[in-house]
Amino acid sequence: MQVNNTCVLSLPCSQTVAPYLRVKYDVTYGLELAGANDRELGTTQRRHLVTGLGSASRAAVVANNAFGTVRMIADGVIAAWAVVYGGASGKVSATANGNPIGFNVGPATTADGDQIEILRFPQAGPALKVPEAHTADDTLTAAESGSVHTTVGATGTVVFTVPAATVGLEYFFKVGAAQELRIDPNGTETIALPSTGVQGAAGKYLTANAAGETVHLLCDTAGEWSCYGYTGTWTAEG
Q1: Quick one: 24 and 78 in the same domain?
Q2: Overall domain count for the chain
Q3: Could you tell me the CATH number of the domain that includes residue 41?
Q4: Do 163 and 185 belong together in one domain?
């Protein structure tokens, strides 16, 4: 068995792909461009051609666990040191979703197609979910997707305001004290009632108040939070 000890992989690819784009495996083409919410294998190191001078059957890909920084392609304006997220067509974006990629360590980009230098977030494996206990209201961000929030130690109602419901974002909640825990959606968006799966009214919060009750919310449709597991009794704002 041959082992590759470098960060550059040689992977099958039967279509032309531009350099510095995020790619994933495809059963037809070998490699194809990753979508906004796709976990990519890495980024193309150079332009890959399948016909003419310089054509090849395999593409050079910088693995997503490579050390240092990596060059990618922005889909528009991204400020310096901003968190970047997966974008369409293998690019990266400033638009938050459930697929944070890393930081823009270079200068700000100004247009779609600009090259950008990214310091990736660690890709060694699934992130360890460390619960965060809250005794006061908190506004969650897209960058906190996948995090766990409890109300251990709370002496009154705690309100969690979730960000705009973007496909891929998810959060876990647990009532840690016999006090009300509310989950408030953004604007006119909705949250499903855990017991039925039916979306609630626009802008209405979800609530529970018995210690030990839990809920896992995930956005699988833009503008809506769905329940992917719960314990206890959760009710919608009247």
Answers
A1: yes
A2: 2
A3: 2.40.300.10
A4: yes
In angstroms, rounded to a whole number, what is the distance separating the alpha carbons of residues 205 and 215?
A: 13
The CATH number that applies at residue 208 is 2.60.120.640
Tokens for 81?
A: 């040191």
Residues 186 and 151 in one domain: yes
Domain check: are 91 and 147 in the same one? no
* Separation between Cα atoms, residue 156 and residue 80, nearest integer Å: 40
| Domain span at 28 | 7-123
Residue pair 123/133 in contact by the 8 Å Cβ criterion? no
> Within a 13 Å sphere around the CA of 237, how many CA atoms are in the beta-carbon half?
14
Distance CA 52, CA 83 (A): 38
pLDDT digit of tens for each residue in the chain (238 aa)?
567 778 898 988 988 899 999 999 887 778 999 998 888 999 999 999 888 888 889 999 999 888 899 999 999 999 999 989 999 999 999 988 778 899 999 899 999 999 999 999 876 444 556 789 999 999 998 878 888 999 999 999 999 999 999 888 999 999 999 999 999 998 899 999 999 999 999 999 999 999 999 999 999 999 999 999 999 999 999 8
Cα distances (angstroms) measured from residue 96 to each of 23, 74, 84, 86: 19, 14, 8, 8
Region at 81 (left for phi over 0; alpha for psi -120 to 50; beta for the rest): left
